[in-house]
Amino acid sequence: MKRIMYSGTGLLVLLLAFVAFNMASNVLLPGARLDLTEQNLYTISDGTEQILEDLEEPIDLYFFFSDRASKDMVVLRNYARRVEEMLQEYERVAEGNIRLHIIDPQPFSEAEDRAAEFGLQAIPLSDTGEQLYFGLAGTNSLAQREVIPFFALEQEGLLEYELSRLVNSLAQPDKPEIGLITGLPIAGGSMNPMLGQGGEPWVAYEQVQQLFTVRNLEADLDEIPAEIDVLLLVHPKSLSEAALFAVDQFVLRGGKLLAFIDPVAEADQSQEAMIAAMADGKSSDLGPLLKAWGLDYNPEQVVLDARLGMSVSRGQGQLPARHIGWLELEAAQLSDDDTVTAPLQLLTLASGGALQPIEGASTRITPLLTSTTNSALVPSSRFTELRDPETLLDGFEPDEKRYLFGARVQGPASTAYPEGLEGREPQVVESDNINVVVIADTDMLTDRMWVQIQDLFGQRIPQPWADNGGLLINALDNLSGSEALISVRSRGDFSRPFTVVEELQRRAERRFRASEQRLQQQLAETERRLAELQQEQDPSQLSEMSAEQEQAIQRFLDEKLAIRKQLRDVRFQLNADIERLGMWLKVINIALVPALLTLGVLLWWGIGRLRRRSA
């Protein structure tokens, strides 16, 4: 009885201590949290803290969530709780400069009218007839508005970025001005010759518009307007000589430049490119400017990389193909020393070119995106009417060099036009420090290379699986002088590749590709010879076939079945290593880990018992 009493008393004391600890922590440490996720997904980043601490005037945030209407939606309510907690953290860090209003818009109420007035997206609930609101609106002292119409579950990884973008937009009403010159339908509206209809704006362009004022410039201009903070060139293949001279002078005067050029812009469906019907009809360059800035670039060469090649679909019923011209750049290929690329994890490129520093140049070249040593340069003409991407593997020999897909150029530079242009003398001949970022690929900005679009009740919901859009925004943020959002944006949702599995796939493909091709050829030859035999035989005389003919046909049928069986075996072996890895992971998770834990407990118990005996 004593033991039970002491045991019960001890449990009661522990319970009271636990309750006291929780009450004390809630009072003394209301904002304390321990975030053990790899990317600190539940911790406000330094960039967000900087944005909130720099607020000079109050901002009102109105969080609308239909609490009663969503009572049976557990997943959505958990997400809404996370949004609310993060907004409360914003309010705490801002120290009075954010006023948070949490609103449950009941049907036919003034709150529901206000949600509709802000432009929030209402989702009808078919089972109850009510409408579900789950969005955010913000206003500043100038009565300007920013809205997140609906927090889609698929974009949970982008939550902090979206919140910080909204606050930052309200805190800085005057957005940096971006001058855009492009030879691609990045803003949408251009007629698609294949579909016969105008296209939607690219998601990358829409994101730029959210954060910057975009001003479209003509490709034949002779001067960059003084109001332009950053000049953005995307596939500038139609730049006139006067425009190149203007870009030269803009950079030397201290203007910031972000240029996307390409040896094969696969997204270029312009009439000019269609008429040319050649790879070089889709190339873009910057004339003499790159050499003046210390970079060499050949618009007729594409980088292939067998290590980074993407797996692409070849259609229904066919195995995916390895495309070594479409590349997935992982963190190891991205510079962790530059604020533009350091937060990124995965970028995709399509038929990108190579930038090479010129020896003895006065500028400083910082690599941003690089290939592996398992790469080589090939003529861009190999991409003309490319049908099967695996043909790029034919004759491929890596040259053990790393090529630059992207670079930052800084330091002293001289004009590319020392003699001027058509009677125009250069106003600036030299600069102590230029700041230029060059990327040798434009297709990476197209939606298909990094984002999927879903339609949610008429609202376009982008779901990024790579960081291509982040690269564009980070570079513009950095060049325009605003770096606060960069660390926030890097927390966006992206595909985390199974690197071990992908390496196993690559090895299996190399091992069995030759066997599969040989068997496919044998099968095609057997089917051809069998068809010839059957065509030679008159259908009305099938019963009169000789024994030799019957044996020949049967032999070819048996050979066909045997080859098809070997093909199935080869394709099965493609995934054998991956299945073996999965089996070992199951063994480790199901048996090994519990066994180790049990063994540890037994050892602890045994050691404790020995100590008690010795005492």
Automatic annotation (TrEMBL):
Name of this chain's protein: ABC-type uncharacterized transport system involved in gliding motility, auxiliary component
Coiled-coil region: 505-536
Keyword Iron-sulfur annotated: no
Listed InterPro entries: ABC_transp_unknown, DUF7088
Keywords, alphabetical: Coiled coil, Membrane, Transmembrane, Transmembrane helix
The DUF7088 domain, residue ranges: 38-138
Entry keyword annotation includes Iron-sulfur: no
Organism expressing this protein natively: Halopseudomonas xinjiangensis
UniProt lineage: Bacteria, Pseudomonadati, Pseudomonadota, Gammaproteobacteria, Pseudomonadales
